[in-house]
């Protein structure tokens, strides 16, 4: 019981760390000020953004450190990297000290490393303490990383709404404070223990409650953040946000209380001697399940494998069949990984889908400024942050759909109970005829495999809003188009970021995920450089060719739709490539997911 409460404390501590560790998402809030203080061009500012993302290329260092050092030591190493990287930048932007451009670049690189180290620590904590529900734990904690910008906006407005340099100071200090508060639960981690089916089911329900609370937190920050322009109101809203973040602290007490009540409270009225919700005949269930899906499997056998012998001719058939994954969870060392076509399809989908959304968020400050919405930069950054948060939470949808499939088993057991107990028969006769109950049960069982959709299919769906958003921005420079596109890109990229860890684990092995995922995210600094370079070149060319060349403390500022219109068109075409790649990945891997689902279904029945 104590171990169960401790693991939930670990989850809450991890959530708090992630909520304040997403310091790269508020870059747009102070980038214009940093650009003017340093007197640099948009291209040079883009290089600073790339330096922050390059920190992810050194993520393997945190994994190696965890092999040699205690987890809490690595956590504080991440915190002090952030203190140094952001703290010295704050002194530069406050003009307390003066540094050459190259050293500022190095500071951005160090600050980016701290984010990656925080993420690695949180991933390890979730995987260690929730081996059965690790996908739910990862999506929840990674989700709160997306709300960091909204929280930092509230804190900055609560202190001084007119001081944009506060963001760097907060980026340096707040993660260190959050790490200090999380130290006690991390030091008191429970030992690994095998969980019963009942405990796993209760954990899934708790995750559902936590996700509902997280959605409420995101709506709170999204809808009320616009009211935080005054310090007094911002302080009240910040207090409410902190209460929502700390509300799950009640969870360990509830878990312990329920366990104690189950062991000590014995009420005969609720003790059924005979069939219960979990005491049904597996053979009957297996027979019914085979009866319901057998015909579909025979009738649609050709649709299960659409790339049969007749379709293997030609380039497309070769792409679909050559070296495709047939089994999920098979371990792939790095040398085997880079020879997999499935990995490179996945890499391109991430590179052209999620990474391009991150680069868009880094350029939000200049985009809003060029379109004439400079005073609304904080609100637009908060909008992106909030929808990125919702996208990360949505990445848990496949796992909750599996819980719906599990409900099918429960429905069938209720049906068996109702059909064998005269008292239950009389109870259901007045409200729900057994015939309708039987039909409901059969319908859920018939659709159980259809509901268990491949996670790579969800990835393809998540990429869809990104090209739509970029083409909308290219077609219109209005405020409504900017807000709608920012929301769509945040939702899409947030889903991809959160789902990527689970997809990497499923496709290429859970034991190799720490190495393989760091190989995958090497596309982030590459994309940040290439996409940012494209945007900066278009931006600077429009500054030099237009009559609207302005000098803002020695920094060139471009105004008008032309500053980013060509960039949006290019980004939209690139994200279409990511959509095509994700669709090919889904088509190549869905048979592996189908086989995994079938095997898991047989295991659950047995």
From TrEMBL:
Residue span, NFD4 C-terminal domain: 330-444, 448-591
Keywords, in A-Z order: Membrane, Signal, Transmembrane, Transmembrane helix
GO cellular component terms, A-Z: membrane
Annotated membrane topology: Multi-pass membrane protein
Compartment(s) where it occurs, according to its Swiss-Prot or TrEMBL record: Membrane
The protein's name: Nodulin-like domain-containing protein
Domain Nodulin-like as annotated: residue spans: 7-252
Matching Gene3D superfamilies: MFS general substrate transporter like domains
Signal peptide residue numbers: 1-21
Domain of life, per lineage: Eukaryota
InterPro entries per the UniProt record, alphabetical: MFS_trans_sf, NFD4_C, Nodulin-like
Annotated TM spans: 71-93, 99-125, 137-159, 165-184, 205-224, 236-256, 343-361, 373-394, 456-475, 481-508, 520-539, 568-587
